[in-house]
Every structure is written in structure tokens, then in C-alpha cells.
Amino acid sequence: MDIFSEPLPNADVITMGMILHDWNLEKKMHLIGVAYDAIPAGGAFVAIENLIEDPRRSNVFGLMMSLNMLVEFGDAFDFTGRDFDGWCREVGFARTEVIPLRGPASAAVAYE
Known about the structure:
With 112 residues, this protein is α+β, with helices and mostly antiparallel strands.
């Protein structure tokens, strides 16, 4: 399956683990959009990522991973929960939340 040319199968929950940070903003928005299109009312999109905290001051791992993505791919980057919220609301999600996980990763969740 090519996630950039085919729709995702319908599901109550779509999860992407360490996927969004690999892409530029245009492709991030595409992936968030196809996730939105695949879930029903009441569904959720979960992105597991090394989110950078909104003030961009303390998650050194997330900041360094963002720099690494930029160096490796030229236009890929990590992002904050606030960034995720804005992108998700732009495609139609009603609300988001960030759930810290063990270590540097978090679950960014968008609800339909």
C-alpha cells in the first residue's frame, strides 16, 4: 500500500508510529488528512512521536531528532503538540491531546 496515493482503510482508530516526522509539512498534512477521512465520527488518530514541548526548551532528544530529520531529508522535521493541534484542526478534527509516554515519545491524539 502506498500511503501517499491510496486511501487508508476505514477504522475506528488510525495509529502512525514515528511516521509524521519523516516528512515535510505538505506530506504531514496529507497523512493527517487521509487518517481523518478513514475514521468515523467518534474515531481517533494517534501519532506516536518524539514531540517537542511547546516552549521548545527542554526536550533535547526531540529537538535533536528534528535537526537529524532536517539533515537527513532536507525538509522533514519533528514538531510540537501545538503544531499537531493546528494541523489536525485544519483538516477537520474537533480536538487533540498529548499523552506523555515513557521516555521521549508522546502520543498525539486527534479526535473526530
